[in-house]
Amino acid sequence: MFERRLNPRALFIALALVLGFAGYGLGGRAGASPNSGNPPIARAAAPGATPASPVTGTPGATLPDIARVAARVRPATVLVLNLVQAQARGGGLPTQLPSGGGRPGPATPGVGLPGQATPGTGTTPQGAGSGFIYDQDGYIVTNNHVVEGAQQLRVVLPPPDNRSFTATLVGRDPQTDLAVLKIDGTNLPTVPLGQSSQLRVGEWVVAIGNALALPGGPTVTQGVVSAVGRDEQEPPSQSAPNTAGPTLYDLIQTDAAINPGNSGGPLVNLQGEVVGVNTLGSTQAQGINFSIAIDGARPIVDQLRQHGQVTRGYLGIGGATVTPALAASLGLAAQEGVVLGQLDPNGPAAGAGLRQGDVIVGLGDVTVRSLQDVQNALTTRYQPGDTVGVKINRNGQAQTVQITLGTRSTQ
Fold first, then answer.
1. pLDDT at res. 1
2. What's the topology of domain 1-308?
3. How many helices (H) and strands (E) would you count in the chain?
4. 231: burial class by Cβ within 10 Å (0-12, 13-18, 19+)?
5. Residues in the chain with pLDDT < 50?
6. Which stretch of DSSP H or E encloses residue 71?
């Protein structure tokens, strides 16, 4: 079982922002370096060995310089508060916390709790997550589930900056669990986007985000790339608790700790470049966490920034990536592709004659080896209204069927 890394508690934060206590209410010390007291760890070099670069992590004299990465990325890693209109005012602890769990901390004078109104705003926090500023114009990437259901969004920069902004939701895409926000500010810190396709299994990575919305700014954890190209289904959303969440494709698996509140924060390489957007963690195992690969996230982010939503070509199919085990159990002639299990009876694929058991092996000039290939092609290569040659394997026979794509909006 996996859960999204959204923290439903912003216990010591929301009111501090309103009252202007961010510099101290969040536990930050004015003027303190986020890396003070954290010198890099070193080990002795072998006789005659050439010292390794502390940034590249090449075997040799030193371990990776995580402090240097943190100093570069933490300033641009922000707290995202999901606020809703308060239903009632008054003291006392809430009788029920928002979905996601967590226990309320000790009551603190002048600090709002979930279920309590924030004086002067009429809002209460229903969750806290993370995001990162990737553009000096104030554009922020986060998870869709961090902002879902919000009536107001507030973004807080980490200490010693501590600035607080009301954020605009530029767009969100539930299918990929991505969202883009915008704040208006000057001299905003940013973090560059890297290339997840360059990652190697076993490579060092660093996860940064507001774990548990703890005071003092983002938490830094380190680990390695455990695997790439993972697919995992998200848990149900708060708005549809009885409906399974979407399947996320091309995920990075890492043992870097991704805790509640880390959702939407950056997974970065040792050059301080974002290679993933942290989103899921296992509740039944240790060290199994997932980030959305930035190469797949980038075109979604671009569409959200330009159009406010992602519009995909629609085939009207449901299926599974063919594996050797699946091919053997179903008696499939094709050893790779996407085998169709469901079809929308009113969708383009069914209308063009595709059937259950057909294996899609190509969309136009795109070779299909997995569901991820289908999603990428329908999102970034072909548009609704395009007529595409869909190559299938049916009972060992190759066919090409011309299908005009429909429209499926994520909003």
1. 60
2. Thrombin, subunit H (2.40.10)
3. 8, 21
4. middle
5. 8-57, 88-120, 409-411
6. helix 66-73
CB 298 within 8 A of CB 193: yes
Given a contact cutoff of 8 angstroms between Cβ atoms, the answer to whether 145 and 272 are in contact is no
Pairing of strands 387-394, 359-363: antiparallel
- CATH number corresponding to 311-409: 2.30.42.10
Among 387, 342, 340, which Cα is nearest to 368's?
Answer: 340
Q: Which residues pair with 128 in a beta bridge?
A: 7, 81
* Cα–Cα distance for residue pair 33/330, rounded to 1 Å: 59
Q: Take residue 262 and report the two structure tokens written for it.
A: 């880390």
Task: Kindly report, residue by residue over 279-314, the tens digit of the pLDDT.
Answer: 988 877 788 999 999 999 999 999 999 999 998 889
Could you tell me the end-to-end alpha-carbon distance of the chain, in angstroms, rounded to an integer? Answer: 27
Residue 182 token pair: 């915008």
* Cα–Cα distance measured from residue 313 to residue 302, given in angstroms and rounded to the nearest whole number: 17
Closest C-alpha among 277, 289, 303 to residue 141: 277
The structural domains of the chain, with segments of one domain joined by +, span 1-308, 311-409
Q: What tokens were used for 212? A: 């548990």
Please identify every residue annotated as catalytic: 145, 177, 263
Amino acid symbol at 120: G
pTM of the predicted structure, to 2 decimals: 0.72
Kindly calculate the radius of gyration of the chain based on its CA atoms and give it in whole angstroms.
Answer: 23
User: 82 has which bridge partners?
Assistant: 127, 153
Phi/psi at 55 (5° precision): -90, -40
DSSP state of 153: E
Number of other CB atoms surrounding residue 2 within 10 Å: 20
- The residue to which tokens 């206590």 are assigned: 21
The one-letter amino acid code at 371 reads L
